[in-house]
Amino acid sequence: MPESPEVQALVEFLDERVSGRVIAGVDGVDPRIVKTRGRPLTGLTGARMTAVRRYGKYVGFDTGAGCLVVSFGRNGWIRWQPSGGPFAETPAPLVARIALDDGDAMEIVETGDFLAVAAWVVDAPADVPGIAALGPDPISADFSREDLDAALGRRRKQIKALLQEQTSLAGIGNAYSDEILHRAKLSPTVHAAVLADDDRERLYTATAEILRGAVADRRGLPLDQLKAAKVAAMAVHGRGGEACPVCGTTIVDHVFGGASAQLCPACQGDEASSGA
């Protein structure tokens, strides 16, 4: 699933290339992705694009005809197709193509088994309910310990689920929640209500460091290399059975309450050793 560091790299790549450009045409649209009645994607034809922005995991394109907002779901992405190629040899299923005035194009694709990409044409990004409800963004320089404490509260909810709850904190998914909790030395199943002050301080530091570091590492990479770079950078996520890079203990796959996580049992312990 695309998470905020990779989406930020995508946004920076696109903003550099499309701002000031005119949309020459929109085609190949799968009607199932459009969530705004009466405002089709084709209505953006002829509009000038002024900026590309990130809202958590959402991408917003400011244009003279409104804001196009795209959510990738679990397996969506945007493929950049420069005028004259090179073109993808094995293109992923296309759900919309936005052609620009000089022949370059953005192709919104869905690589999963079910269609989860969604798109809206709205007057303002906050008109999309998911954006309006977003919590603080840890990538922002303004993200503070107070923001984290407000997001966590004293809730009897497992901390991994809270990290991924977009109304609590914006932009974190399954992979980075595992990485953050490993860095913070916290079990994914511990409840926010029982976290001590030093636990929260480690969690705040880990959240900011992991996400901001990932943004810096992904910046400037070709779009088709972002996923591989993310996977390669993981310390514990997706590495069940391998050695923890910190202590050498075998990383385990932990399934709980319909969720799953990869963790180091020595670094992160169980609920008892995490304050629960």
UniProtKB/TrEMBL annotation:
Record Gene3D superfamilies: 1.10.8.50, MutM-like, N-terminal (3.20.190.10)
Presence of the UniProt keyword Zinc in the record: yes
Cofactor: Zn(2+)
Native source organism of the sequence: Microbacterium capsulatum
Name of this chain's protein: DNA-formamidopyrimidine glycosylase family protein
InterPro entries for the chain: FPG_cat, FPG_N, H2TH_FPG, Ribosomal_uS13-like_H2TH, Znf_DNA_glyclase/AP_lyase, Znf_FPG/IleRS
Lineage: superkingdom: Bacteria
Pfam families (UniProt xref): Fapy_DNA_glyco, H2TH, zf-FPG_IleRS
UniProt keyword annotation of Zinc-finger present: yes
Domain Formamidopyrimidine-DNA glycosylase catalytic positions: 2-115
FPG-type domain sequence ranges: 235-269
